[in-house]
Amino acid sequence: MLAACEQPRQSHCTDENKGPGAPFASIRLALCRRPELLLFVALLALFNLPVLAGSCWRSMMFQPGAVQSGEWWRLFTHPFVHVTWYHLLLDGTTFLALYHSLIEPFAVRRLLYVLAAGAGSVFLSWATAPGMSTSGLCGVSGIAHGLMAVSALEMVSGQPHGSAERRIGYISFLLVIGKAAVEALTGRMLFTFMYFGLVGDPVAVSHAAGVIGGLLPLLLLKRARR
Questions:
Q1: What pLDDT, on the 0 to 100 scale, is given for residue 18?
Q2: What's the pTM value of the predicted model, to 2 decimals?
Q3: Is 79 in contact with 184 (CB distance < 8 Å)?
């Protein structure tokens, strides 16, 4: 279905971005090119319904003890759980925008980046942040950082040498790597003034772990192509 949407039926996925219906046309075009975005939106909406009542779905968060006791689904559901509406707005919009910006044309590979970044975020955080055993882990920001690094490298490899886009890709990559490294080494999140106390107790190493996880399949795929 994705291939049919992107190539043979391209005319159905093209809208004129003019007039009052332009925002809806842009959304329709984005969903046509990235139909899995609907799945992500649905998952974010489903797992954050308790936020409307001022709570969060704790039985879907990652808790090492609970996973070891057999609640394996937490490995897959925890990125979509958020502690407040602001946490969801901050993480969810960033994740969806970065996923939509990926140049990779194949949905399987795009989803692989998401899964790898999520796996890296949770397992490396579990191994290096003992405090997570009691506080748990939730939120999609680790995956978002992984996608940011992947998107930056895609921009670098997809543009001619010396172009402004290529320089922007390098700068973006260095910024996300630098931010994640500082947070992992200091154990403190940057830009906490933007949190307003509404994002719970962040696990600082989770962003760097997401970057490592997201970059691994990208590098392996590039090596396989060569």
A1: 55
A2: 0.85
A3: no
DSSP-assigned beta bridge partners for residue 62: 137
Q: Among the residues of the chain, which ranges form H helices?
A: 2-6, 22-33, 36-47, 64-68, 74-77, 85-101, 107-128, 132-135, 141-157, 164-186, 205-225
Predicted confidence (pLDDT) per residue in 3-43, tens digit: 444 333 444 465 545 555 555 566 666 667 788 999 999 99
Sorted by where each begins, the domain ranges of the chain are 1-33, 36-225
Burial class (CB in 10 A: 0-12, 13-18, 19+), 148: buried
- Report the C-alpha gap between 171 and 175 in whole angstroms: 6
Q: pLDDT tens across 73-132, in order?
A: 999 999 999 999 999 999 999 999 999 999 999 999 999 999 999 999 999 999 988 777
Question: CB count, 10 Å around CB of 221?
Answer: 15
Cα R_g (the chain), whole angstroms: 18
| One CATH from 2.60.40, 1.20.1540, 1.10.150, 2.120.10 for 36-225 | 1.20.1540
